[in-house]
Amino acid sequence: MHYIPPRPDWQGRQEDITHESQWLNRREWLRLAGFSLLGGNILASLSTPLLGQGQKETLDSKKSTHTKTTSKPSHPWKNPKFRSAGRPLTKESLVTTWNNFYEFSLDKGKVHKLVQPFKVSPWAVEISGLLKKPGNYSVQDLEKLVSPEERIYRFRCVEAWAMTVPWTGIPLGLLCKKLGVSDKAKYVRFVAFKRPKESPGFAALPHYPWPYHEALRMDEAMNELTLLATGIYGKALPKQNGAPIRLIVPWKYGLKNIKSIVKIEFLAKRPDTFWHEAVPHEYSWLSNVDPKVPHPRWSQATERLLGSDRKVQTLPFNGYGKFVASLYKK
């Protein structure tokens, strides 16, 4: 049996929550100021007060600085279905400093410091298996195939804490269609990087089945919720949050949301996944959020909101049942 090291207790404060309307107004301020937020551009820190409510967000016609030939807008539209997650946004400073990323550390508060030597450019994703257009794709290549869009999702960790994040990402189902994925493909496997010189977690945790690997059924991959995320809070994805590209499946526990992907494979047979392989009695292959099924070491009935001492009831499928419950009917 694989040894699972103890995880640190989470912490945070109520005042560290930012309401969604404040973040949306900040986006409007940026539009009026003429900044472009696409691609790998990292926005400089801002001290100007936020604008008042009621101003309508419009499309910025400026082109991305990293793409010379494109007609895509530099501000992707928010999908109207996902403009709100029914909870306030979690403060960006918490989301970018409280990170489960065992490739770097078991200590969530240290990951954002330890990622500094990690190189995320250039970056290629090898896409292979049962599809018409295999190859090595940069993040920019993928964004040219399918326009990214912004969505606000709840995020539920298996450790029973939660946050709400505005992601920018590529709908995976649309990408599968562009790549010509075969009907014979029944699963999609994702593999993360393995660079021991840049990531101390590999040496510290040699008993784990590295590199990190995850998988979805094809019907899950094609679901409209599933994203390949490339940004948060209108900025490029930080290293500690899985730069430059990661998976987001909001109805599953966070362990399924693999970070820093280097390989995507479309397969006919089901592959194993990292935590199911390491500790199968604790982590199911599906790992759907289910408040009725406790983890062997704690209840999943409630969750603690990051930045708060408040606990709330956990919802089946993390509240996304209307989108995905039909996938699991026998």
Model description:
The chain is globular. Strands 3, 4, 7, 8, 9, 11 and 12 form a seven-stranded mixed β-sheet that branches. The protein has a five-stranded mixed β-sheet with strand order 2-1-10-5-6. It is an alpha+beta fold and 330 residues long. It has nine helices and twelve strands. The chain has a single domain (14-57, 87-328), classed as Oxidoreductase, molybdopterin-binding domain (Sulfite Oxidase, Chain A, domain 2, Alpha-Beta Complex). Mean pLDDT is 83; it is low at 1-75.
Give a quick summary of the entry:
The chain is of the alpha+beta class and 330 residues long. It has helices at residues 20-33, 92-95, 111-114, 139-145, 172-179, 201-204, 218-221, 274-278, 321-324; strands at residues 125-129, 135-137, 149-156, 161-171, 187-192, 213-217, 227-232, 235-236, 246-248, 261-267, 302-305, 311-313.
Superfamily at the CATH H level? Oxidoreductase, molybdopterin-binding domain
Total beta-strand segments: 12
Q: What is the structural class?
A: alpha+beta
Number of helices: 9
- CATH architecture name: Alpha-Beta Complex
CATH class: Alpha Beta
- Mean pLDDT comes to 83
User: Which blocks of ≥5 consecutive residues have pLDDT under 50?
Assistant: 1-75
Secondary-structure element pattern, one letter each: HHHEEHEEHEHEHEEEEHEEH
Largest beta sheet, briefly?
7 strands, mixed
Q: Compute the CA-based radius of gyration.
A: 19 Å
